Amino acid sequence: MMAGGLALLTAGCGGIAPPPMAPPDPATLATLDRFVSNDCNPVAASALTGIGIPASDIRGANYGIYRDEFRDIIVRWDAWVYLHSQPGAVVVTMDEDCRPIQIYAREGATLPGRR
């Protein structure tokens, strides 16, 4: 039963592509560091830089943490980044080692170049 559930869970992730990455803009990294201290900030800044979100548009940030309830270890991070230019948030999802998984918009936000 557990193996089937795991296969179903991972099968749903097959179409997810990592976000476009770029060297992190130092201003974007400094802005994230000002709002929240997290080892994944450089990767989140790289993803934000990669999709063209400037530091000047960031009005806040925080992290969602996902843990494996059986082993009590972190298995995923979501960096929620709030922008001046729009409602909602841009979310950068990373694995337990801060490797990028995806980037998407929530609660009325849109990614640059998309509607």
UniProtKB/TrEMBL annotation:
Return the protein name.
Uncharacterized protein
The species this protein belongs to is Azospirillum thiophilum
Taxonomic placement: Bacteria, Pseudomonadati, Pseudomonadota, Alphaproteobacteria, Rhodospirillales
